[in-house]
Every structure is written in structure tokens, then in C-alpha cells.
Amino acid sequence: MKTKFATVCAALAVMALTTACSSNAPLQPTAGAASSGGAATTSSTVPKLTSPADGAQIPHLSQPVTLTIENAVSTSSTPQTYTFEVATDSGFTNIVYSKSGVPAGSGGQTSLTIDKRAPATAYYWRARDVNGVTVGPTAAARTFTIGPEIILQAPVPVSPALTGSATGRANLTVANAQTTGPVTQLLYQFDVSDSSSFGNILFTTKVPEQAGGRTSTGVTINLKGSTVYYWRVQVSDAPTGITSAFSNVFSFTFISFDPLKAIFVDNPPDVGSWPQTATITSINFTSNAMLVDFDRRDGPGRWPDAGFGSGSIEYTLGMCFNLSNQWYCSAVIQFWNGRDLAASGLPSEVAINWYYDSRWGAMQGHQPAQGEQIAMWVGSGNLRDSGNTYRERSDFVVMPFGGNYTPATGATALRPSLLSRPGSLPRPIGKR
Hints:
seven-stranded mixed beta sheet; rod-shaped; mainly beta; 3 domains
């Protein structure tokens, strides 16, 4: 009996209890029941809560949470079990999880993985040991907080519109996904297939979320003309791997652009066969202008000037529309060397400032819609009314109306709608 008392007392000393103990003195129980003879039967120390740390902040994604304690020391020969409780208040009047009869673990520790708890909530937890019918003392509670849940809504396709058309690099645009919680790095996965079931994915890519409320990418594979393709998008939070559902499936008909098959109106009809001696370097749509620059506009190797009245014209800025599956092109805005790029005029006034009368045939009065596939280009000299020209042209950049472009990145995200925003710039060279 002395040996048993000595062992228990040593354990109690390790647990930092202050109750005096000696081999000749009976153990004073911290909890227990008297036997029929009235003698103390069991005594236990308080279990020590070890994990999670008090005040721990736990991401919602890291659930379920595992609670770990350091086992209590008991004088009972009955196998120990533990009761764990989790509440939303320190007084434990609202217990949201409880588990009794948890067997004592090996190695001096016992762990319990609890059910997933609601996000963005602070919790209190505690534990006590049970020896048969004897309940040991309850450990002082600790707290942990489950962080907010990350929820990603599916992106919404914008362009090409449902059953719309695309050409050139086939730029795909979605409205950025609505999110809840601490997202950090959102990636948008664009898929293109030749069937609505996506059994055969022809193109897939992931791009970071872009500014302005929309995210875009260009399809870099060769698509077949007059062919229907299907596209969808989903978004994921890269660090956590949380992924949204796929967007609705949209389809588009790919329309190839070939300048040799385009119809040029109010310009020399053979512009498509002219040598390309310049390259578009940037296109930037603003609320007041369409800023188009190219590598032969300025500097020692710039295009030469062509006579125009008492002055000269260096180049003419043009646009192409796909109307009823036929491309029509016409360069109409004349620039002398040094003229501000903003002289192109308002994007919202293409119909009235560019193609305003019958000289432009099918192009007359056409106002491109936001996101509509167009082509931008320039020709050397004055191309209007088959004027004085050097029969040189740039490349044709096929892109959505309202987008931006550089050769390195292709077309990027559309700006907010530019079609109803007033401006104060002077109109291009006068109507005539």
C-alpha cells in the first residue's frame, strides 16, 4: 500500500498539486466517492488542455479540429475515459458539441476530432476524466476561433455572348466571380471544347483575376472558321485549392479573318494584298478616343507623307466589321505626322463620325457593340475615296470593341462600357 501511495503522490507532485502527501498519510481525493466502509476510493488530477493553443485562430478550411489533452493521473484501477465539451459561451450554457466515454489515449495524451463547426465563430472547450461512476475535476476552459468560410460563386460569361461570334484570337471574357471570405489569389480556368459536354477539351488555361471587374484571355490554338465552339470558366483560390462551380456553358461561332477575302469600301479595293510594312504596337480604348499606335508612325523610318490639299497625310486609321459573316473594312480617319492619337474620336460615335453616308455601303451607320469582334489597322497615306497612297499597310488586329491590345499580351479585359459616356474631343477630320 505504501508503494501505491508513493507512486500517486509523485505523479501529483509532477502535476503541481499543492496537497501534501506522504507514504504514511492517506491520499486526499479531488473527486470521488466513498466506499461502503466510508473510506476514500479514487482521486484524480485535472487533465491539461494542450491543443489547440488557447486563443488559436483556425482557418475554416483546416477543420475538423482535433482537441488534445494531457491525461489526468488517477488512483482508480478502473479504465479512464474522458468527456469533452465545446460551447459558444464561457459559461457552457450553449454546448454545441459533447462527447463522453472517450478512452484514455496512449503516451499520456488523449485526442478527439470533433465535428466541423460553424465559421466565423469563437468556441470554448474543456475536458474531465471519468473513472467508472467517479467524475474527475473539469479543466479550465480554453478558446479557439474558426475563421470565415471561403465561398466562390461561379463566374458569369460576358463575351462572346451566348451563341455569339468570335474571330482572330477569340477573346473570352467573364465578369469576376463574387466571393466571400479571405480569398488571396484567384485564378480563372477557361475551357474550350467542340461539344457542350466538354468530353474533348481543345484549349484550357488559367489566368489571374484582372482589374476592372472582368477577366479575359485569348484562345491561342487554331480554330476552324464557321465552326461552333463551347466555353466555360471556373475560379479557384490558389493557396487553399477551393474551387467554384463551372459557369454556364456559352457557345460561339468562330469566324476567320482573311484580308484577301475582306471587302474594302471607300478605299482601294486591293488593300488586303498590299505588303505589310508596319505593325500595330498598342490599342487603347478610352471614354474619349481609340488610341492606335504603330511602329512606323514616328522616327527616322516613319511612313512618308502623301499630299492632301495644301498639306499632307501620313496615314489613315481603319476598322473592319463582320456583318452577316462577311468582313468589311475601311480606313477613314486621316492623320498627319504629329497629330494626336485621340483625334480618332469617341468610341460611342463611330457610326456618326466614321461611316456616316452611303460611300461605306454595308458599313454605313454601324455602331460596334461593346465586346463585338472588330479589326483595327492603318494604311500609308490617304486611303479615303481612293486618295493618294503608298500602298503599304499594317497588320490587322482582331479584338473586341472596347478592349486593349499589345503584341505581347494580345487583347486584354474590356473596359466598362464606352458607348454612353460623353466626351469633349473634337471630331475627326470633317465629313465630306
